[in-house]
Specification:
By secondary structure, this protein is an alpha/beta fold. The chain has one domain: Rossmann fold (3-Layer(aba) Sandwich), CATH 3.40.50. Helix content is 35%, strand content 21%. The protein has seven helices and seven strands, in the order βαβββαββαβαααα. A hairpin with a 2-residue loop joins strand 3 and strand 4. Helix 1 packs across helix 5, helix 2 runs parallel beside helix 3 and helix 5 runs antiparallel to helix 7. The longest helix is centred in the last third of the chain and has 17 residues.
C-alpha cells in the first residue's frame, strides 16, 4: 500500500493558489484513476483506489499547511505504511515553474508543510517537488506570491499538462521508479521555456 499526500490549505479561497498545487496533483490523480469519493477522516480528506498493481490512499490535510504533519502521520500509522511508501506532493519556490523533482529524504527547504511532516514522521519519505518559481519582481513578497492564484494561461498551459502527466505516469511512482517518472513528465509536459522534446523520443 502507498500513501500519496497533497499539501495545501483547505477551502475555496485557496483552491487555485500556487501553494495548493499539491492538492491539485492528488485531485487530478483521483479523477484519472477513478478513486473513491473523498471523505473526512480525522483532520484530513482521504480517498482510495488502485494505481498500477498497488492500492493507494490519497490524503489532503485540512489543518492548514503549517500543521500538515499530524494528519498525514496518523493515517500512515493507522494503515502501517512504511516511510518509503509515503509520497508528498508540494509546491517548490526554488524550482522554475513547470519543473519537477522527486527525491527520497532531504531537508524541508523552508517549506512549512514539509517541516511539520518531518517533525511527525522523520525525513525518509518521498518528496514530489512541483516548481512554481519565484516572483518575477524582487519587490513582491514571497508569501503573497505563493498565496496568489495560478494565472489563467498557466492553468490552461503548463500546469494542466503537468497535472495530467503526473496522474498518467503515477504507476511509475508507486514502484519507486523516480527517474522514469521525472523523465516522462519532462517529455509529456515540458516546462515553459524548456527545449521542445524530440518527437521520436520515448
Amino acid at each position: 500500500m502507498r500513501l500519496f499526500a497533497g499539501l495545501g490549505n483547505p477551502g475555496s479561497t485557496y483552491a487555485l493558489n500556487r501553494h495548493n498545487v499539491g492538492f491539485m496533483a492528488v485531485d487530478r490523480l483521483a479523477e484519472t484513476h477513478g478513486f473513491s469519493n473523498w471523505k473526512s477522516k480525522g483532520n484530513a480528506l482521504i480517498c482510495d483506489g488502485q494505481v498500477g498493481d498497488e492500492k493507494v490512499i490519497l490524503v489532503k490535510p485540512q489543518s492548514y499547511m503549517n500543521q500538515s504533519g499530524l494528519p498525514v502521520a496518523e493515517i500512515a500509522r493507522f494503515h502501517k505504511i512504511a516511510l518509503d511508501d509515503i509520497f508528498v506532493f508540494h509546491d517548490e519556490l526554488d524550482l522554475a515553474a513547470g519543473r519537477l523533482r522527486v527525491k527520497c529524504g532531504g531537508g524541508h527547504g523552508g517549506h512549512n508543510g514539509l517541516r511539520d511532516i518531518d517533525r511527525h514522521l522523520g525525513v525518509l519519505y518521498w518528496r514530489i517537488r512541483i516548481g512554481i518559481g519565484r516572483p518575477a519582481h524582487a519587490s513582491m513578497d514571497v508569501k503573497a506570491w505563493v498565496l496568489a492564484d495560478f494565472g489563467r494561461d498557466e492553468q490552461a498551459g503548463w500546469l494542466g499538462k503537468m497535472l495530467d502527466a503526473m496522474a498518467n505516469e503515477a504507476p511509475r511512482l508507486v514502484v519507486h521508479d523516480d527517474g522514469g517518472f521525472m523523465s516522462r513528465i519532462a517529455y509529456l509536459a515540458p516546462a515553459p521555456g524548456a527545449p521542445s522534446p524530440n518527437s521520436k523520443s520515448e
